[in-house]
Amino acid sequence: MGHLVPLLLVFFGFGAPWPVLARTDNQTACGSLEINEIADFRKMQNCTYVVGHIRLAHVDFTAGNYSLESLASNVSEISDYLMVYRCNGLLTLQKIFPRLRIIRGQAQLFDKYALVVYENRNLRELGLVELLRVQKGFIRIESNPMLCFVETIDWMYLMGNATEQHYSLKHNKPHGQCPWCGGPLAEFDFLKNASEHCWNLNAAQLRPQPPRSKDCPPACGISGCDNAGICCDHNCVTGCYSQNCSLCANYQGKSGCVNQCIASYEINRRQCISKRECKDLGRIPLVRGYQCVKKCPGNQKKVLDAKGMIQCQVECKGDFHVKSAADLEDLQDCLTINGSLTIELTNIKEKIVEALENALVSVKEITGYLKVIHSAQLMSLTFLQNLDSIRGDKLVENKYALFVVNNYHLEHIWPPNHHVIIQRGMLFFHLNPRLCYEKIHQLQSSLKSGENISVADVSPNSNGERVICGDGVRSLKPVVEDLNSTAVRIIMDYMDWDGMETLIGYSYYYKEAPQQNVTMYDGRHGCGHDNWLMDISPNKSRRHVIRNLKPYTQYAYFVKTLTRTDYHIQIDAYSKIAYFQTLPDRPSPVVRIRGSSEISSQILLHWWPPSRPNGIIKKYLLTYEKQNVTKEVKDVSASIADLDCDCVDVLPYYSGPQPDDEDYYNKDQITYEDALPNLIYVSRYYDNRRKEFDKVVDYEHLLTMKKKEVPTTLAPTNPVLTNKTLVKKAAETYEMFRMKSEMRHKDMQDFDREKCKIRHAMPKCQNSHASVVQQVEEKCVVEETLNGIELPGNQHFYYIFNLEPETYYRVTVRACVDGVVNGCSNPAEALVKTTGLRIERLMKDV
Ligand SMILES: *[C@@H]1O[C@H](CO)[C@@H](O)[C@H](O)[C@H]1NC(C)=O
Ligand SMILES: *[C@@H]1O[C@H](CO)[C@@H](O)[C@H](O)[C@H]1NC(C)=O
Ligand SMILES: *[C@@H]1O[C@H](CO)[C@@H](O)[C@H](O)[C@H]1NC(C)=O
Ligand SMILES: *[C@@H]1O[C@H](CO)[C@@H](O)[C@H](O)[C@H]1NC(C)=O
Ligand SMILES: *[C@@H]1O[C@H](CO)[C@@H](O)[C@H](O)[C@H]1NC(C)=O
Ligand SMILES: *[C@@H]1O[C@H](CO)[C@@H](O)[C@H](O)[C@H]1NC(C)=O
Ligand SMILES: *[C@@H]1O[C@H](CO)[C@@H](O)[C@H](O)[C@H]1NC(C)=O
Ligand SMILES: *[C@@H]1O[C@H](CO)[C@@H](O)[C@H](O)[C@H]1NC(C)=O
Ligand SMILES: *[C@@H]1O[C@H](CO)[C@@H](O)[C@H](O)[C@H]1NC(C)=O
Ligand SMILES: *[C@@H]1O[C@H](CO)[C@@H](O)[C@H](O)[C@H]1NC(C)=O
Ligand SMILES: *[C@@H]1O[C@H](CO)[C@@H](O)[C@H](O)[C@H]1NC(C)=O
Ligand SMILES: *[C@@H]1O[C@H](CO)[C@@H](O)[C@H](O)[C@H]1NC(C)=O
């Protein structure tokens, strides 16, 4: 809870105009609202929906002379989130948001929360009486010491049963000290309109249900179906027919709710309107993206068309200098850059390559020059994927149309088969240590001038000196030899003698890859700021184990050699990218269990899938037992509700670093080359392949070269080269020597077989009653029998029947993964109490 405070403080003290965005159907859209004092409520006065967020922070409701009624708003929708933080004297939100029906959570507070009510010392109830849905994002109601009617809300319903959303209720007034829905705690007789779920004493929680929610076709999901069994429209939050829907999940179209705006224009992220309507609002219908906007975006200029209508036209004129992502806005959607483009990405910490790709995807022509300098992040110029020509109307130093200098990681210019014509002007390439001279030379044919590339302009000495250029790239052929759920052993083909001489070791690159479409340059921004993880194996062993992987996850990997330095060509060998998938493993516990009881003999349980399923959840195992709750436990029963929110990962199961662990992606990604600056060496490799053996022309020569290596038993004492038998024998001896020598090299690469063992889970014993000794002897495990109700892995709720009223039940749920022996998680527990008969009766009467 503590860490929220400093972040929230950031919001304090904002002040800016909050423009009314548009009026349609007597509705008024507003932008995000920051409310820090009573006077700020005026900004919200006319809003019926908010495109953005609302933040009430540090408002002192005890100050000033105002009536509560004057704070009332007509806001019924918030597209992003609602935050209420440290408001003094605020008793309820009912007066402020009497009509709020939906919080969409399209953008979330801290990328996570859609509704946050935090540290409001006087707040007694939420009172969001009309709220029907929080579409996305988490809910956090915390540290409001007087707050009641928190447990009385069906949060599950508000989130539409979504298992990826969570709510957290903590440190509010203990449930046991709060009134019930409908009346104060002790006075059940006052319960007239009692309902299990309410926002305060007077307002039951509205929970419209589809006509039918049980026995619908499975395709309907949680939307339910109508009485005829036809699925309710998933575009409608509150009902079955999109035409009659009063609350659209996505967009409000002409004739009902729709998924996206088709042949119409999106306005305020919630509605589709016609071109005409858009214009009538004084707005501009943008053809790209079909949006109805107030002003032309970024680099688009207002122009009047033939009919005198305002349109937005992209205009990209001038010399553009891109140093950071912020500079890209002016280039968005440009087809032609009427001027020159300079890319200079000196800030290696900024991840910008993807933004470059997106911003420059449409560029077909640059009328001036293209200059790429000091951009260590770039591995290629493929971000200009549609560029056809550089016109060269303007040149660098009156000579160069393509000027590429000092780009440390640049390895490619254009993708294969992509030709960029240079209409006028020459090339200038220097200090690109990884860009092969040949690749630059291939651009000769793109030069319209026909002039030859000169060495002064494009030097083989300052380009490509840190990589192997030409065809001589040796390829590695790694194979996955063995794996378990968290580790994989990769084995390389044998390196021959020449390779061995210069080999220092291998580096292994790997990353998660749900799809098999990864390329080596994906997300690589040079400088080690890429998302490939790397293991270095600084020895000649051809085996390596990558550990700490996530279970049941597909990874992409490739291998590269680390080689010794000679002068200035490097012959690192690469493998192609290949994929493997780790094995499944035991899952983590289910994230949370929630129980509710509307009928005294029943409990409805909900739970969330494990945060780390580690495989396909085959089933859930559920147990329940009556629990004798002692006096003390009863007293803290208020915190039991807390417990069931918080029994998160009771005993966390470690399954390797997770992407949300802080260090997961920050794992030391500094490239080895940077750490060991002299790992570069020469290619002697190709010309002299197998020279050690091939050069031996005859037996005598062999003897003089390798006397010690020759097995003495076979070495003739008196070689007479004219004797045919002898020659034959010599050849045999030579062959034997060659094999021995090779064997020795192979052994050097195989020395660590033991160290690279992958530990495997033991198989299930044949005999299901095997003793411990038998288990050890037969290297197997007995499958433990877990009792409980088995439920399919896609079901996340269960009704428990035939219970006693007003009684505590201890409930446990385990998740079990397919294909793993004893693959059930630790149980997550919750204590749930059934409703009393009296309340049940009261509720039936209503
Ligand atoms: C908008 O308000 C006017 C008058 O205030 C009313 O005549 C009209 O029907 C309203 N339109 C909608 C869509 O509610
Ligand atoms: C709200 O609408 C009223 C009447 O149209 C107008 O007088 C007032 O200025 C508006 N308030 C804001 C904040 O726009
Ligand atoms: C508050 O305002 C009302 C009328 O607007 C006035 O009658 C009353 O005296 C004011 N109270 C204070 C304390 O200023
Ligand atoms: C809210 O809208 C209703 C009609 O829809 C109107 O009568 C009322 O004055 C509005 N309230 C505010 C605070 O604008
Ligand atoms: C949530 O699931 C429960 C149990 O399946 C169901 O009764 C309820 O109608 C669902 N709620 C929504 C909003 O779909
Ligand atoms: C109970 O409901 C009735 C009608 O639905 C209503 O008239 C009455 O005011 C309600 N009582 C309370 C205490 O909310
Ligand atoms: C929409 O509501 C109207 C009036 O309630 C009803 O006549 C019509 O049948 C409904 N449309 C559908 C598709 O159910
Ligand atoms: C580029 O700008 C010049 C000077 O303003 C103009 O004459 C030319 O037509 C423009 N070219 C393109 C393709 O927009
Ligand atoms: C791979 O495919 C997935 C899904 O089709 C897509 O989201 C992702 O962007 C692709 N990745 C690359 C690098 O192409
Ligand atoms: C609960 O209490 C009853 C009566 O005191 C006792 O018979 C029973 O064994 C207890 N059950 C458990 C699980 O402790
Ligand atoms: C070659 O030498 C071997 C043994 O040294 C001998 O037995 C053989 O007769 C010789 N052959 C010829 C053709 O001289
Ligand atoms: C997988 O094998 C590695 C290497 O032997 C071992 O460290 C790891 O514990 C194994 N993982 C599991 C889940 O057994």
TrEMBL record:
Residues 1-22 form the signal peptide. Keywords: Cell wall, Glycoprotein, Secreted, Signal. Residues 472-585 form the Fibronectin type-III domain. Pfam families: Recep_L_domain (PF01030). It comes from the Eukaryota. It is found in: Secreted, Cell wall. This is Fibronectin type-III domain-containing protein. It comes from Drosophila rhopaloa (Fruit fly). The lineage of its organism: Eukaryota, Metazoa, Ecdysozoa, Arthropoda, Hexapoda.
